Amino acid sequence: MLPNMRKASLLLLFSLLGISGVLAKESHASSSLTITREGGVIEDYISSPLDTTFYLGPNDSAILWTNGSTGEDGWYSTHNVYLFRDQVMVQVTGLMGFYDVTRAGQYSTASWDFTWFFPCLFTIVHAEEPPLLLNVKVWLQGAYDPNSGMMRDDLREAWPYQSYFSDHTTSNWALLAIEGPDAIVDRVSVELRSSGSPQNVSDIEFGLLQRDGDIVGGDGTSPLAFPLPPGDYFIVVGHRNHLRAMTAAVISLDTLSTTVDFRDPGLQTYGTDARKIEGSAALLWAGKVANHSTSISYTGNSNDRDAILQSVGTDPTHTLHTFSNADVNMDGIVKYTGADNDRDIILLNLGSDLATGVREEQVP
Questions:
Q1: CA–CA dist 352, 306 (Å, integer)
Q2: In the prediction, which pLDDT does 89 show?
Q3: DSSP letter at 269?
């Protein structure tokens, strides 16, 4: 059957069955899409170069499997496979991975083995209620420059385009060429939490942080979109090596873009000293280096200082040019001693006389 005839037949079939809600386009080999229909019926679709269209009902789900191969020359990647949603990296696995792709968005996967290749590209669109739109602003202490009143974009300059930085931020490499206030600093996360149970995450979205503090979608301009009903939510903003912060009160969100500015010291946040205040700027605390940590510590078990030392190796004077959580000041260099080292920020954030102290993340 010709591609267009096949697509038209599927659309007609789904229309007759009353199935609507999600539209998915899948292309490229070496990946497969498994759709589970309401009632438990499973449909497997092996990907192909054809631009095939699928509709999912509101209670259907879709899982993507990819093995990181181009599917054309018979060899496989031995590196990670990255999943992007709307051109922002949302998940990374090893050689093979399973991804829940039920949520709306444009999906693609990418991997690297001496050359970039893209095992999968498809789009899921929900024909349901429009999403909540949120315009969040934040300063990261590690990258913040009080002289310019903006953040540095050293990571973008140190690791441009087809590199670690693009792997962990965006598949839209054109954005990495942008300079000035809208230059990309790094990827950040924004969570919406239930008004009745702030410890429960209702949804999480990843965005691109610009030098001026704006968090935007993968196109470099749009606010973040959350597929949730209008209502009151706590807002949490986070970064891979900074402590997260949450609003002290719920924020009413709807389909019109709402602005929440964590840069403003006047914004009330949950807990005590959730952000570092420097003059008129409120910053997320830097120094969360140890994996899965929700605190900053200089001594004791699994402390963040040792994590920096382990990154540079047995010689503490060694420096490492890499994209790493141990790069606390976000200059593209992991450094344990000397000027502009990454260790001192942790000590200063605990207080020079409180090296044994711990700064806990103020999020329930």
A1: 17
A2: 80
A3: B
Comparing CA positions, the residue from 30, 28, 62 lying closest to residue 43 is 62
Distance between CA atoms of 255 and 176, rounded to whole angstroms? Answer: 29
Element (H or E) spanning 209, and its range? strand 201-210
**Confidence label for 30 from pLDDT (cuts 50, 70 and 90):** low
Q: Of 180, 141, 137, 136, give the one whose Cα is nearest residue 279.
A: 141
Cα gap 85→58, rounded to integer Å: 20
Measure the CA–CA gap between 308 and 334, rounded to whole angstroms: 7
List, for residues 333-343, the tens digit of each pLDDT value.
999 999 999 99
What are 54's two structure tokens?
């699928």
Q: What is the pLDDT of residues 195-219, one digit of tens each?
A: 999 999 998 888 999 999 999 998 8
pLDDT: is 245 or 78 the higher one?
A: 245
Is the pLDDT at 81 greater than 90? The verdict is no
- From the CB of residue 116, how many other CB atoms can be counted at a distance below 10 Å? 14
Contacts by 269-274, CB closer than 8 A, 24 or more apart? 269/245, 269/362, 270/198, 270/234, 270/245, 270/246, 270/362, 270/363, 270/364, 271/246, 271/362, 271/363, 272/362, 273/359, 273/362, 274/243, 274/245, 274/246, 274/362, 274/363
- Spatial contact of 88 and 207, defined as CB atoms under 8 Å apart: yes
